[in-house]
Amino acid sequence: MASIQKRGSKWYTLHSYKDPVSGKYKRKKFGGAIGETKAQALKRWRRIQAQMEDGEIFLGKKMTVLDLAKEWDKKTFSKKQPTTVRVYRQTLKDHVLPVLGNLDILKVNENHIENMLERTLANRFDGKKSKHTTASAIKTYDVTRAMFNWAKGRKTIPLKYNPMDGVEKPEAPDQTERYLSESEIALMLDLLQGNKWFHSYFFALNIGARRSEILGLRIRDINLDLLTVTIIKKLTYVDGVYYHQNVKKNKNKGQGLRTQSIGVNTALMIRAYLDQRNKERQELGLSPFQLDDLLFTRDIAYTNSHCNDCNMIHSGGFINPDSWGDEWRRRLKGSKLEGLFRPHDLRHTHATHIMAQTGNPKIVQARLGHGDIKTSMGYMHRIPQQDEKAVEKFETMVREAVEKYQSQLDKKIEN
């Protein structure tokens, strides 16, 4: 219902709104011209209300990008995964807020966004000395766009359009085909041999799971008789806290929760590994591992004390995901593999060689746990030797088809 009042010879329109900064409801009064009629005041009230809804008139305090970022964090981050929250907050802190933080959200334009991306492209803010890539700029673009899209959909925030709409997303560089050849696999395993976490790297190579999924595996997730592994849990480490959580089954089939085959040799390796670990625990006077204990642990008798969403304190302790990567790099240092491959490339290696053996991308997709086969295709790289074999097979098929056709033709002529 329209709210108007007459004071003396003037009509006033009253408008309620929620201040996006304070969160409190307030009222604003607008006076009309002397001599304005009640009908004209009602018409003016409707026009102002429409302008408020369209964002043409904003009655609250100025909302800066910093205010928006805080509101976005408060209203949505609790629903996101801990690792996602860490990336979002770090991106805002290092890349977005230093450039846009003090700007009124209604005044952010394409020039501001482009300056932010140029700054990100030109600098590193993580203290690392490795070669700079466009990955941070792409992440900055995605996070900033997501924040403004969220604001655009809020009735209490007067944002009519996303200022990111007119800005091109930084292009990702051509992806290097980062998979290990057969000889490189042999060298890698030799370099890792004797390492306390060797079996976890070997298992990662043979099932193609994510790092978080490998480190989150429990003994009960492996069926050595049926030769299967079920990916149920994942392990992440955020701000000094371990999260051992169920993987989520996305709306896309195949994402996260899945059961896949393991080879006989892999199963034998895992059986021997568990027998050895239990023997070591027995020598220390400790009880054998239980089914809910982790498959791969930090140490024989270590116990983690900082764990969120954990049903129990696991014997042997969690392996820190960052330490897992650091140990990999330490073992490869000084070899021809140094700096060329990451632990994540075990996943690429698995996908590439499984594709070469089966020729079926759907099998690769299921093993990697991707919801979209397009994502899986980015993990499958061309093996030159396989290309040559494929050409040979194709030529043989063509030759045999021609010979068969010619034979049938000759028989018809004879008849």
Structural class based on helices, strands and sheet pairing: mainly alpha
- Reading the helices and strands in chain order gives EEEHHHHHHHHEEEEEHEHHHHH
Shape: extended
Structure summary, number of beta strands: 9
Largest sheet: 3 strands, antiparallel
Which percent band covers the strand fraction? 5-15%
Low-confidence runs (pLDDT<50, min 5 residues)?
Answer: none
Average residue pLDDT:
83
Question: What does this protein structure show overall?
Answer:
With 415 residues, the chain is mostly helical. It is 47% helix and 11% strand. The protein has a 3-stranded antiparallel β-sheet with strand order 1-2-3, covered by helices on one side. A hairpin with a 2-residue loop joins strand 6 (233-238) and strand 7 (241-246). Helix 2 (65-76) runs antiparallel to helix 3 (82-100) and helix 3 (82-100) crosses helix 4 (110-122). The longest helix has 31 residues, at 384-414. The chain is extended, with a radius of gyration of 31 Å. The N and C termini lie far apart (96 Å). The mean pLDDT is 83.
Provide the fold topology.
Blueprint: E1 4-7, E2 10-18, E3 25-31, H1 38-53, H2 65-76, H3 82-100, H4 110-122, H5 135-152, H6 182-192, H7 198-207, H8 211-215, E4 222-223, E5 228-231, E6 233-238, E7 241-246, E8 258-261, H9 264-283, E9 307-308, H10 321-332, H11 345-358, H12 361-368, H13 373-377, H14 384-414
Parallel strand pairs: 7-9
Antiparallel strand pairs: 1-2, 2-3, 4-5, 5-8, 6-7
Helix pairs in contact: 2-3, 3-4, 3-5, 4-5, 7-9, 7-11, 11-12
